[in-house]
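Chain X:
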Amino acid sequence: MAEIRAFRGLRFTQAAGKTEELVCPPYDIISEQQRQAFLQRNPHNIIRLELPREGEDPYTVAGETLREWTEDRILKKDTDPALYIYEEEFTANGQKKRVKGFICQVKVEEFEKGIVLPHEETLSKAKADRFDLMKATFCNFSQIYSLYMDEDHRTLSRIDALSSGEPRIEVDDGEVIHRLWVVNDPVAIRAICEDFAERKLYIADGHHRYETAINFRNWCREQGYSVPGDDPDYVMMMLVDMQHEGLVVFPTHRLVRGLTGFDANAVIEGCKQYFDCYVRDNLDEIEPNLDALYRQGKKAFAFYAGGNQWTLMILRDPNVMAEFLPEKSEASRGLDVAVLHTLVLERILGIDADNMARQINLTYTRSFEEAMTSVQSGESQCTFILNPTRVTEIRDVAAAGEKMPQKSTYFYPKLITGLVMNQMDRQTP
């Protein structure tokens, strides 16, 4: 099953500056204005490598910058192979939480082998960008986020014991406190690696980067840069116990825009064929109502098209999904997003899968306030407020060999970039 191993992480040295000035959020949620702000704070910020924009060929510039920083000892590889325990402390839904896992190298395997399993569809443009960056740098600057099953929490107990002391690094970004411990004891490393001999991994966040890692491994072999067993056969991952009490998944709400002849009342009438629909007057009740139904295991969402009213829609009979998605597993048919997409967006609003993928009439946000404001400002015609996908649903869909629609999950908080990197050696062709 999953093959994991320790590695000599590439990390910033004191010569680079303060850690809080060197790290950044994931590249795909950073605006150009934010990117410039990170660089103004410290020109050595990891964003220069992770999201390069300088020069005619930014990827080549990133590769040259990486070489310069290693030569100038701005970045330096750890002396011994290690596992890197990583904890995030944060507040979600009014509660203080902590989630802890560890960063390691994972052997890249094709999805059909059933060892590393995806759960979401991906976009080709994002994969091309990451592939060009990897070819130029031979480095993973950020971790793929994956989950594993461990009923006895054996591995979590190990990493809790190994991280009982002061962390090597602690960074407070104002929203999340990030902590990193370095474990280079060979006995401890071997015990953790052996834990995974019979385990599968479920990708939570980073599908584009994992598919890119497969392509990069193949390219390296074709170019003569590596042979089986070399560094390009592995990718950097953060692994977290799927039943960790600190795991948080936020919903991703749907926003509809630009539909010709849009009629909110017609949408509600059309939904009544499959949903019990209740008109409500208090917008503040949307999230509490949905949360209560979530706890009951109901399939429900809120429809809002402006003004002071909204409509609560509760699926009357979940078995109806078998009629429309007979080829899908029960796990896939039972997803809130599958219910919404199949019965409402496609059948009533005429937004098909290709339209969704290209985001012609459909966009996404995890922010309830942003979804509501978008409709109130006229930017969007309506929004569908959803409940979050359950972690067990992610596992079951992946185990069935299927994928959820894009933007089905939002794991919070995102992993910070720049605490540790995976720089790969290459052979001379």
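Chain Y:
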Amino acid sequence: MKRALAFDLGASSGRAILGTLGDGKIGMEEVHRFSNDPVIVNGTMYWDTLRQFYEIKQGISRAKGYGGFESIGIDTWGVDFGLLDAHGDLLESGVHYRDDRTQGMIGKVFAKIPEERLYEITGNEFMYFNTIFQMEALKEKRPWLLERADKFLFTPDLFNYLLTGEQKCEYTMATTSSMFDLRRKKWSREVMDALGLSESLFPEIIESGTVVGTLKQEICDELAVTPKKVIAVASHDTQSASVAVPTQEEDFIFISCGTWSLYGTELPGPVIGRKSLKLAVTNEGSYGGRVNFLKNITGLWMIQESRRQWIREGQTYSFGELEDLAGEARPFESYIDVNASEFVPAGDMPGRIRKYCQETDQPIPETVGEIVRCIDQSLALRYRRVLEQIQSCLDKSYHRIHMIGGGIQSRLLCQMTANATGCEVVAGPVEATALGNLVVQFMALGEIRDIREARAIIARSEQMTVYKPEDTAAWERAYEEFKRCLR
């Protein structure tokens, strides 16, 4: 029996999960869970980076009591980073990707390097929070930080550094930045020069599955553990999740459904052209030097934020209760564009949904169930639209969708996705990100041969649920109505 420790940090919480490999299956046990709350200081939204690192050390310490482990791997969200000075000290906590410092930065970057050229180099969709736009905001608003910075490290790379002392950048994280030349697989000197960034700021890139180093002796002494290998897994959480798609097919499409929905397919190389630029499809690196051709969609964020608003108003619902209420609500009443800019910030999400429906001359959802139903059916119909866009770019058709991640705990959303797309939906595993993190560690340790074997092990270890399309004629009509409600 071999054991590895996976840290999976999401937008609202983090977990330490101990994985055990034996008898051709993987077992998992959560040994530590912690809240991951942003902190607003003087109008800036920060991650609590030092607290996050404290919780990582707590997870390492607690895992000792579960039989020990051989390695550690960390995955997080993409794009965000910390800055180190010449002494290797952190200059400030990482800024949250939902902070508003990047407002207006997309246009300023495009004035330095044209949109078409930047896409040609990086293959990235232009999201307001991409690292390149955060860098531009720093240059304009806080230039002294960049002047003092010796290296920038993405969030998981930063934690790997704090554990080992090694300053490296893992491939999948680099590809979220809009500063990485995806064809040449290296930082883009052209982008650096356009933004006036020093080449020395950019760390060495390493492949997913590389052993970064071992735990520093001071940490081993503090936590009373023996030195462990720290492995750079596919450290962008989307890419860890995609490793865990339980298929033996070479050509498949998947939705990693959580706070965000990442919808795409795994390819040998990037797809970069006028059509993919126009449709805002992104290319991100995946395990083994491959590329995921993806669309970023607002996922369960709107339900999570609506629930927080109802809690503020004194109404506490579990996610299961919200699904039950949505199932009881009348279908096909109202639709929203889940990717509309007004749904990005935190705050009164139900109020903004009602305003959107009012402005688009639709029935206004009033009850909790009606709000959740509106979100779920709009998300499923957005999945249909994105499926058409990806198929158009690739000139191929898909008839089965793999849904993975926490969002598949909503049976209602899974069934709606099958109905809206007309595809069979294979749902599972829920813990895709943690499983992907673990199997990359086991591959690096030589315990699993390759990703094909890893996916076969996951398929044996996890229960999948299959959803067949139902009421397709009604959903076809709903799709036409949904498209008319998009602004």
